[in-house]
Amino acid sequence: MSKLKSITRFLLSLLFIILVTGCAGNKVSESTGEYFDDSIVTSKIKTAFLGDSRLRSADITVTTFKAAVQLSGFVDSKAVADQAVQVARTIKGVKVVNNSLVVK
Fold it and tell me: Which of 75, 87, 102, 104 would bridge 80 by S-S if both were Cys, CB 3.0 to 4.6 A apart?
């Protein structure tokens, strides 16, 4: 009976370790927590863009991966692109903003 308990504990421990490591991120994929954090950052940036009259109608896509924000799309002027970068940088949780915006 003791041997059965030991085997059961070992298998449960192994299962727990496998499940926990499955949630961990690496250089090319995010952990579950990082994914949610990045989703929140992206939502905050998009909301901030909607609150800015110059950015509200701009065709800007916001993507966040491990707190690095990528802005892509088309804007009417360099000033609008600079404004988008500045607004994105003010959001808590943003480490870096990569500007791939194209002026029409």
Answer: 75
